Amino acid sequence: MEPFFFGEHRDLFGAYHMATGMPRRHGVLIAGPLLNEGIRAQFALRRIAERLSARGYDVLRFDYKGLGNSPVPSSNARVADWAANIVTAADELPAIAGVETSTLIAVRFGACLAADLMRKRSLKRLLLWDPVLDGARWIEDLHACRDNLPIRLRDAVRSNEFMGHEMHEGFAEELKTRCNLSVPADEVAVVLSSGYRDSSDVENLTRHIDKVQYDCQWTSYNSSVIYSADIIETICNRLI
Asked: What torsion do the CA atoms of 72, 79, 31, 41 make, to the nearest 10 degrees?
């Protein structure tokens, strides 16, 4: 695994997993979730990347501007920045790996953010893991999660703080403008955990849906690592 910074201002952190064994000349870009969801999913996403690279795929994971290992404060990040970050990462992958075709794995709100990429670049395959397809619905879940905190914790949370990240004042309104119920790709597949609630929306996207008996509990202040061997195996089997 090769860590590096990239982007016009070097404000994106990437982790490149070079293909080993018999290279397929095919890249996989992983657009992970945001905020605490992204932190909790890091281990699973790394395992997915390692498994795919061992089977000949060049894989790029990255942290959005203002999140993870990005040097930019989270309060300086905008939703439009994150959507642009995916396009930048999609261009970086063939530049460093020389791949000819690409697959996108989009997790949670990454599915909404990826709409810009899918309008600008052609994708061979798209795989969604518990996708958030409506930003307005997600911000409602985030507010409900905060409201359910014990009083002593809820009173300590600022109005512009979400899952431990201090965002700019217009963050919630920006999320509400993001919606992606159209996924133009040659092949689309979805992997859902048992706690996923928007199955009817997903069924309009594709017939290729795998359901795994593991509740990720995404919208919670739970700090436990999201790790399910079944989810990792299902996602990788969809691509291998």
From this structure: 70
Q: Which domains does the chain have, with CATH numbers?
A: 2-134+181-239 (3.40.50.1820)
Q: Name the CA radius of gyration of the chain, rounded.
A: 17
According to DSSP, the β-strands at 12-17 and 2-6 are antiparallel
Strand order in the sheet with 187-193: 2-6, 12-17, 58-63, 26-31, 101-107, 125-129, 187-193, 209-212
Instruction: Please state, in angstroms and rounded to a whole number, the distance separating the CA atoms of residues 112 and 51.
Output: 26
What are the strands, taking DSSP E only, across the chain? Answer: 2-6, 12-17, 26-31, 58-63, 101-107, 125-129, 161-162, 165-166, 187-193, 209-212
H or E stretch at 141: helix 135-147
Global confidence as pTM: 0.93
Alpha carbon separation from 35 to 92, 110, 125 (Å, rounded): 23, 12, 26
Could you report the per-residue pLDDT of 84-142, keeping only the tens digit for each?
A: 999 999 999 999 999 988 999 999 999 989 888 887 887 888 999 999 989 999 989 88
For the four alpha carbons of 154, 139, 84 and 108, in that order, the dihedral sign comes to positive
Distance CA 77, CA 64 (A): 9
